[in-house]
Design brief:
The protein is built from two helices and twelve strands, in the order E-E-E-E-E-E-E-E-H-E-E-H-E-E. The longest helix is centred in the middle third of the chain and has 8 residues. A hairpin with a 2-residue loop joins strand 6 and strand 7. The chain is globular. The N terminus is likely disordered. The relative contact order is 0.23. By secondary structure, the protein is mainly β. Helices cover 7% and strands 29% of the residues. The strands form three sheets. An eight-stranded antiparallel β-sheet has the order 9-8-11-12-5-6-7-10. The protein has a two-stranded antiparallel ribbon with strand order 1-4.
Amino acid sequence: SVMLGTTLLTLTSCGGKGGSGGAVPAQSNPQVSTEVLTDAGIYRAVLSPLNTGLGVSTSGTVEIKIEGDDVRVKSNIIGAPAGVKHLQNIMVAQTCPDQASDTNADTVIDIKESLAKTGQILIPLDSDLSSQLSGNDYGPIANNAGSFVYRRSASLTQMLSDLLDRDPDTLDPIVKLPAGNNMLALSNRVVVIHGVKSSADLPATVASFDGVPAEPLVPIACG
């Protein structure tokens, strides 16, 4: 899972002594604790392959650096299906699917079985990190060797503003942050890479969404 960034904790306490000449109990003022939470730090997801029975073995890393208002994301992926557009998403939960997630036993972990473990999509790693919906049809295309590199940056303020906005479609797999939550909390998330070739031999039982072909949504790596 995505590793911990930086948390700043300030703890202040004060107390006093009893008077002289006897067993006067010491008296202390109540302890004052001020906790300042921030998303600042470097987070790295180390990806492991999923659905290797389809002839893919995708791995790599996704690294996110947050410094001030600057968010920078970079992916380095190998072993992905060549010539295929690969969607990348940061999910709500912190658990990756595994073979036990294939609840209908058709040998493929499909998008709906994957979402049952990872939760919904929080941050699409697409062409516009500042918006969940703008640019979310973008995905890097793996080269002939099955590799791709992805680099994008955004304003943390703009990202959080969008993530706390009203959800325009509560039935789709993309979800907003809970009201009042002003942190990405990346250490509690996982990243999923999707996409197999259109010629992949998928069982008819592999699920998708609203007429979208199943192949672009099949998860191939998670970390």
